[in-house]
Every structure is written in C-alpha cells, then in structure tokens.
Amino acid sequence: MIVYEREIPDRDGRDIERLFDATFGPGHFAKTAERVREYSYSLPEITRIGLYNGRLVAVCRVWPIYIGGTEALFYGPIAVAPEHQGGRIGQDVTEAALAAGKKAGHEFACLIGAPAYFSRVGFEVATAGSVRFPGPQDQKRVMLRRLAASDDTPFPEGEVTAPLDAMRAEATQRAYLQRARQAE
Ligand SMILES: CC(C)(COP(=O)(O)OP(=O)(O)OC[C@H]1O[C@@H](n2cnc3c(N)ncnc32)[C@H](O)[C@@H]1OP(=O)(O)O)[C@@H](O)C(=O)NCCC(=O)NCCS
Description:
Bound molecules: coenzyme A
Order of helices and strands: EHHEEEHEHEEEEH
Helix content: 25-40%
Shape: globular
Strand content: 25-35%
Distance between the termini: 67 Å
Number of strands: 9
CATH architecture: 3-Layer(aba) Sandwich
C-alpha cells in the first residue's frame, strides 16, 4: 500500500531528485516550468510524496507563484517511479497535493502538462495567452484549477512571476538606495 504524506526536505530531498532523474532524464532542468521553479521555492507542507514500504516512489511538488499578481500554486513535477506507473499513483499523489493546497486556503492551482491526463484531476486548459510563462510555452498545455476559490471566481490572468522575482527586485532597489545614500 502507498502512504501519501508531506515532504520532509532533509529526509526526502535527495530521493525526489533521484526520482526526477529516473522519470524525466537529466534534461528536465531545461524546461520552461523549471525556470519558474528557479525563482520560487517549493512548499514541503503542501507537496505530497508517495511511500511504498517506506521507499519514495511518487511526488507532486508544489510552488507558490503569481499569475498577473494573483497568488496561485504551481503543481509539478509529478513523477511516479517507472515500476509503479499505471496504478493511479500519479493521480492519487496529485489529488493529495491538491487537497492540501485547498485546505491551506489557496485559491488556484496551475500546471503545465498533458490535458488528457490532468483533466482527470480537475484541471482545465487555460484560455490561450491568458497565463504567460517566462519563456516559450505550448499554450495548449497550460492548465488551471480552482482550489479554495468558489466556482464562479474567474481564473487569474497575466504574466507568471514567482516570489523570488519580487525579492530580487527589492534587493536591487535596496542596493540602489544604499549607493544613492553613499553618494550624498
Ligand atoms: C505521468 C505520470 C505521473 C502518471 O502517473 P501514473 O501513476 O503512471 O498514472 P495513473 O496510473 O494515475 O494514470 C494512468 C493513465 O494515465 C495515462 N497517462 C499517463 N501519462 C500520460 C500522458 N502524459 N498523457 C496522457 N495520458 C497519460 C495512461 O495512459 C493511463 O491511462 P488509462 O487509465 O486510460 O489506462 C507517470 O507516468 C510519470 O512519472 N511519467 C514521467 C514523468 C512525467 O511525464 N510527468 C508528468 C508531467 S509533470
């Protein structure tokens, strides 16, 4: 039986990276979604892992992002160890992470993935051009889903940014002010 639980970074971090290498191959860091992650930090309390006899065999990582200034959660990568694929674990680990995001009060979830697969866990393809990632992106794979938001709340629209963008902008501003003060 698979047990789904939150990520404990010190315990699971290395196993998760190994699972990504085994499922996506070493090229996975080139993807656009990966660039969003570079500017964010994952949320271990919402990320869900699947343990089989104590061994990590599945993960759905979750990251905070902004879509046009509205807070949302980015889901992915989602990965299941090759020998466990096809047994609904991918769906179950994603649903567990979606439930955790909803419980924590987050309104929207976003991901980049195969519509045929992720429509099974409630995602729908975003209106073309409404959610713009930094870098080239196949718009037909950008998907959204409501979490705590009510059914009639419109989906957010706009550029996707991540918390570290804002932090970097602030740091640049601070450095600028410091230089300006020194020059006075
Ligand atoms: C995609 C992945 C997470 C699915 O997990 P899983 O546990 O094998 O999938 P499930 O058992 O929940 O679902 C299996 C079903 O999904 C379908 N499916 C799997 N990958 C799919 C894809 N990329 N597109 C469309 N359908 C897909 C299967 O054909 C199967 O269909 P069926 O129920 O009609 O037979 C897993 O195969 C994996 O780790 N793949 C490599 C990494 C990856 O591509 N991740 C997704 C992008 S973030």
